[in-house]
């Protein structure tokens, strides 16, 4: 049985962590062979890149958009090599918090040309694409309010706040780019309203995920 590749995307504060946890717990309860990961930081080397990318540097120096882009793709190349491709070849369901669409949304919103994103995507991903991407959609005004509450509540646990601190206009561009991807690839990207109650969001995600897994031969009933 071939593996299935599912990604969860969305703006900051859209509830990705909550929904990924709920989905992974349901799949494990059903006995589905599962690998759960994230980007950046899905491998030991990737965790070092995550720290470099997301934690503000003590010097105050910021990555230029091109350097940031290359670091994200270095993380993705290692992630694909060490974890994602082997797990799919072993017939597992691979569930990843952020992937290629986040790069196109965030780095594209930072001014990186789509042509550069296309070239790096072709080099690193080759023909691999998620079978399903769940996009948790929310207006940035609401999502950033959630982020502020979360960071105050959890403190050091959510210390990686460099993107959280970006201007509202940046987050609006990020959301627009996510939605543009969804419009261009409606068969792959399922847009789920993230302002709905948590249980309702979970149910909407499960409709799409369960249908995909049944079609791939997994027992999820």
From TrEMBL:
Belongs to the thymidylate kinase family. The lineage of its organism: Bacteria, Pseudomonadati, Acidobacteriota, Holophagae, Holophagales. HAMAP family: Thymidylate_kinase. PANTHER family: THYMIDYLATE KINASE (PTHR10344), UMP-CMP KINASE 2, MITOCHONDRIAL (PTHR10344:SF4). ATP binds at residues 10-17. Its EC number is 2.7.4.9. Residues 8-205 form the Thymidylate kinase-like domain. It is an enzyme of class 2 (transferase). Pfam families: Thymidylate_kin (PF02223). The keyword Nucleotide-binding applies. It catalyses: dTMP + ATP = dTDP + ADP. InterPro entries: P-loop_NTPase, Thymidylate_kin-like_dom, Thymidylate_kin_CS, Thymidylate_kinase. Keywords: ATP-binding, Kinase, Nucleotide biosynthesis, Nucleotide-binding, Transferase. Phosphorylation of dTMP to form dTDP in both de novo and salvage pathways of dTTP synthesis. The keyword Transferase applies. It comes from the Bacteria. This is Thymidylate kinase. One of its GO terms (molecular function) is kinase activity.
